[in-house]
Design a protein that fits this description.
By secondary structure, the chain is an alpha/beta fold. The protein has 11 helices and 12 strands. It has 2 domains: 188 residues, Isopropylmalate Dehydrogenase (3-Layer(aba) Sandwich), CATH 3.40.718; 132 residues, Isopropylmalate Dehydrogenase (3-Layer(aba) Sandwich), CATH 3.40.718. Bound molecules: 1,4-dihydronicotinamide adenine dinucleotide (NAI) and magnesium ion.
């Protein structure tokens, strides 16, 4: 998108559940201070969607995103085991958001220094298609649980192309394909094979290698610097992106983007954190960095860089940090300090 598109830019805002409204309010404050160009249409989803509209993904929310093609979303609570289907997964499907971009880099010096890894996750297929059912066994009507996953060759090609094009645009040199094709030979084999096919078109520009997911998880702990970009199936990408967050100081510092041809939804990697919700201590930086990715997406990359600079100064120079980063600041105190840095 061009840097010269008409301002303000209409965008959907979903505050979300749990700590979602807390980190979203903090993010709005900072975006205001930055002079970010968004005109928000506030909508609901998740538990809040059910409470307010009787649906975890209300029609009005879908209609808003259909209109704006752009959203900033807080985390949505999904019941474990039974209950309704994940509104996050439904949103990705509804707008064919096939690419999940999850970059991490060191902002706060910690256990690891100089981490800089971009994870690209296939966002629509794999085991998260979640065609599940029970089969009776003996007296137990739920004696056996069955799950079917699905990857299409076209879907694998599309996400591999997205990853390689991203690498070219952003000066990345190597993509590591993460799979389990030794066991899940078809489901993840097709992903691995297709990525290697696509890689031929980028020879000399972007290198490709691959790792079996369990070994990759271990190597990320031992020597994360060997990785530049990771290209993952849906489930493995979900798991490894939380691991990547751990390398840079936790879920408080990890943003993500869900991207399709026709819409883009930006969010933190973390969930609704019910254990700390309502206490005013959530780290809003992930949601703010997600807003930064959104600024880049609309051609306002300079504002995104200004935001990240101010975040670094607040965390490292002012030493104002929320408890997850070892500090004592509340969400509000941190946000005020950040706004002061922007002023
Ligand atoms: P979670 O990411 O919400 O929390 C995991 C741990 O990290 C908790 O101890 C939490 O307090 C901490 N944490 C997360 N974000 C934080 C932040 N910004 N500041 C400080 N600490 C933070 O994962 P959990 O507990 O497994 O899931 C809770 C709910 O969130 C579930 O209903 C799940 O389905 C949903 N979820 C939603 C996502 C989304 O909307 N994109 C993503 C992941 C989970
Ligand atoms: Mg996750």
């Amino acid at each position: 998108m061009s840097a010269h598109r008409a301002f303000p830019i209409p965008a959907t805002l979903i505050p979300g559940d749990g700590i979602g409204p807390e980190v979203t309010a903090a993010t709005l404050k900072v975006l205001d201070a930055l002079g970010a160009p968004f005109a928000w249409d506030i909508q609901h989803a998740g538990m809040t969607g059910i409470e307010r509209c009787g649906d975890a993904l209300p029609q009005t929310t879908l209609a808003s995103i259909r209109n704006t093609h752009l959203a900033l979303k807080g985390p949505l609570t999904t019941p474990i085991g039974g209950g309704f289907r994940s509104a996050n997964v439904r949103l990705r499907e509804a707008f064919a958001l096939y690419a999940n971009l999850r970059p991490v880099h060191t902002i706060v010096p910690g256990r690891y220094e100089n981490i800089d890894i971009v994870l690209v996750r296939e966002n629509l297929g794999g085991l998260y298609v979640a065609h599940e059912h029970y089969i009776p066994l003996g007296d137990d009507p739920h004696g056996v649980a069955v799950l079917t996953g699905m990857n299409t060759r076209e879907g694998c090609r599309r996400i591999a192309r997205y990853a390689f094009d991203y690498a070219v645009r952003n000066g990345r040199k190597k993509i590591t394909v993460v799979h389990k094709a030794n066991v899940l030979k078809a489901l993840t084999g097709i992903f691995l094979e297709t990525a290697h096919e696509v890689a031929r078109d980028y020879e000399g520009k972007v290198a490709i290698d691959d790792r079996i997911v369990d070994a990759c998880a271990m190597q990320l702990v031992l020597n994360p610097w060997q990785f530049d970009m990771l290209l993952c199936t849906n489930l493995f990408g979900d798991i490894l992106s939380d691991e990547l967050a751990g390398l840079v100081g936790g879920l408080g510092l990890a943003p993500g983007a869900n991207l399709g041809a026709d819409a883009a939804i930006f969010e933190a990697v973390h969930g609704s954190a019910p254990d700390i919700a309502g206490r005013g201590i959530a780290n809003p930086v992930s949601q703010m960095l997600a807003a930064g990715l959104m600024l880049e997406h609309v051609g306002a990359g300079e504002l995104a860089r200004q935001l990240e600079r101010a975040i670094r100064q607040t965390l490292n120079d002012d030493n104002v940090r929320t408890p997850d980063l070892g500090g004592h600041a509340s969400t509000a105190t941190f946000t005020d300090a950040l706004v002061a840095r922007l002023g």
